[in-house]
C-alpha cells in the first residue's frame, strides 16, 4: 500500500541520518546566488531520496582580477541540521532562515552589513614573500656589481697590452686610446733606388708571360737560331762560326788534321793543299795551304771574317 511505502521510506531515512552526515559544495551556476543559512534541497529521483542542507560558508576568490564565488553546505558533525526525506511522488522542498555565519577576517553587523579585514596571517605571508624578493634582488645586484668590475679589469688589461708599440721602417705604428694602427711608407721604385712598384709597371710585368719573341729580319731585331753547320752553339753558350770551302762544303783552316779510311785526299772534297802524314791507323792528312778560289769564296760569303776556326789561321 502507498501509506506503508511512505512510512517505510521515512523509517529508512531516519536510519541513514543516524549513520553519518551529509556535505555538499554548490557553485553559482546559471545565476544562482545563496546566503549563509539558506537551505538547499536536492532530490535523487531514482532512489526517491530528498536531501535538504543549509549553506554554511560562502567563499569569494579573486584571481588576476576575476572573482569567483562558491558555497559549502551543511556539516552534521559541526552542529548543522540536515533534513532527509523520502517520497514515492515528486515534490517536496524546504525553507530556511536568513542568518549569516562570519568566517576568518569577516565581520557581520546587526544590520546584516558584511565587511572583511585582512588578517595578520595573510599580512605575514605577504611580508615573507616581499623579504624573499628583496633578498633575491640584492643577490642579483651583487652579481651585477662583480660583472661590472670584471669588465673594468678586462678593459684595463687590454689598454695595458697595447701601451707600447714599436715599428721598424718602413712600418710606422701608433696608438690612439685603445686602438693601434700601422702604415707602411715607401717611395716608388726607380732604376737606382728600391721602392714600391707602380701600377703601370705591374701591368707590364703581368704581360710578360704572354710575350712571344719575334723572328729577326733585316729591318727589326728578333730571335735567330744556328743552322748547326756554319754556326754552332756549345752547351755553355759559346757561338762558333765555320767557313765553307768551294761548293759550299765545310772550310778547314791551315794546320787542320783530317783522317779517313779510304786514303782519299781531303783536298778533293774541301779544297786546299793537304799532305799525308805517317800513321799506323787511319789515313792522316794535314792541310798546309788554301786554294785561292776557295779563300776568296769563303771571304766573299762573310763566313770567315777574322775568327780563328778549328786551329791556327
UniProtKB/TrEMBL annotation:
- Supply the source organism for this entry: Bifidobacterium vansinderenii
By what name is this protein known? Tail fiber protein
Lineage, top ranks = Bacteria, Bacillati, Actinomycetota, Actinomycetes, Bifidobacteriales
Amino acid at each position: 500500500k502507498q501509506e506503508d511505502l511512505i512510512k517505510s521510506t521515512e523509517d529508512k531515512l531516519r536510519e541513514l541520518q543516524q549513520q553519518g552526515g551529509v556535505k555538499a559544495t554548490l557553485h553559482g551556476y546559471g545565476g544562482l546566488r545563496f546566503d549563509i543559512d539558506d537551505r538547499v534541497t536536492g532530490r535523487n529521483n531514482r532512489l526517491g531520496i530528498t536531501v535538504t542542507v543549509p549553506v554554511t560558508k560562502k567563499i569569494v576568490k579573486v584571481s588576476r582580477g576575476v572573482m569567483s564565488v562558491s558555497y559549502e553546505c551543511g556539516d552534521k558533525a559541526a552542529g548543522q541540521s540536515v533534513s532527509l526525506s523520502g517520497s514515492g511522488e515528486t515534490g517536496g522542498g524546504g525553507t530556511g532562515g536568513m542568518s549569516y555565519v562570519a568566517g576568518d577576517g569577516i565581520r557581520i553587523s546587526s544590520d546584516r552589513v558584511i565587511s572583511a579585514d585582512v588578517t595578520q596571517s595573510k599580512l605575514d605571508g605577504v611580508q615573507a614573500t616581499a623579504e624573499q624578493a628583496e633578498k633575491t634582488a640584492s643577490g642579483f645586484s651583487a652579481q651585477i656589481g662583480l660583472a661590472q668590475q670584471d669588465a673594468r679589469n678586462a678593459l684595463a688589461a687590454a689598454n695595458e697590452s697595447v701601451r707600447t708599440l714599436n715599428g721598424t721602417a718602413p712600418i710606422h705604428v701608433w696608438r690612439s686610446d685603445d686602438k693601434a694602427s700601422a702604415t707602411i711608407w715607401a717611395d716608388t721604385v726607380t732604376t737606382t733606388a728600391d721602392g714600391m712598384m707602380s701600377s703601370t709597371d705591374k701591368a707590364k710585368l703581368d704581360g710578360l708571360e704572354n710575350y712571344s719573341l719575334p723572328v729577326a729580319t733585316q729591318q727589326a731585331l728578333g730571335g735567330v737560331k744556328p743552322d748547326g753547320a756554319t754556326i754552332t752553339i756549345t752547351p755553355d753558350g759559346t757561338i762558333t762560326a765555320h767557313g765553307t770551302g768551294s761548293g759550299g762544303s765545310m772550310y778547314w783552316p791551315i794546320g787542320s788534321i783530317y783522317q779517313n779510311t779510304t786514303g782519299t785526299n781531303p783536298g778533293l772534297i774541301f779544297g786546299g793543299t793537304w799532305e799525308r802524314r805517317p800513321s799506323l791507323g787511319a789515313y792522316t792528312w794535314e792541310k798546309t795551304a788554301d786554294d785561292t778560289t776557295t779563300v776568296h769564296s769563303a771571304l766573299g760569303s762573310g763566313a770567315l771574317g777574322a775568327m780563328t776556326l778549328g786551329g791556327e789561321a
